[in-house]
Fold these 2 entries.
Entry 1:
Amino acid sequence: MPLIDDYVTDVLMRDLVGHDRKPVCFLVYLWLAAEQQRRQGAVQLSYEELAESIGISKSSAQAAVRWLIRRKLLAVRKQNATAMLSYQVCSPWRDAERRLFLRGQ
């Protein structure tokens, strides 16, 4: 079973599901985080494969990815115009903690 940061279940889940009212975004984030841990790197797959893996529609997967990118919770790369997307799950709360630690606060 993949390890999940406490922040994901204690804060992010309430933020995406309750505040943003986008539960599919939480499912996409959670699945990609787990898959990234299993593969030990970025996850490369199509929207169709992503949607099928989670059990949602392709358009829901696309909308969730757009929202997660907007929230800076997901980074996406593409080698060229026809290549599949490569997803990298981001953890901005860790970066903030690291910056505070380095400042000595």
Entry 2:
Amino acid sequence: MFRMAPHHSPRFLDIVNAAKQSVREVTVDDVKQMLDGKADFLLIDVREDNEWAKDHLPAAVHLGKGILERDVEQRVPDLGTPMVLYCGGGFRSALAADALQRMGYTNVASMDGGIREWREKGLPLTNE
């Protein structure tokens, strides 16, 4: 069910599983296709600052999970804005997407597999 999960605690996995039941997930291939097709959506990297600085998807904006709920309304005032969130593997982004839905955002998805799968597929990354 969960990839690369042995190092995660059972309680963390419990809340991730609950979040994944209520959020829409998209695949890495879906996101690549959306980017290639110039789809109108906001791609949000919810990882920590040091992870973002190392590398991230070229079209992404950074709103780390630690500040997302605090800052998202200023950055994204329209609750219907299409958003795809990603993290390292899809766990934190599922939690973040769930939180945004509870805040009233209606078009939020989490990229399952995260940047780890994006990287494994050899897709483009930047550190700019």
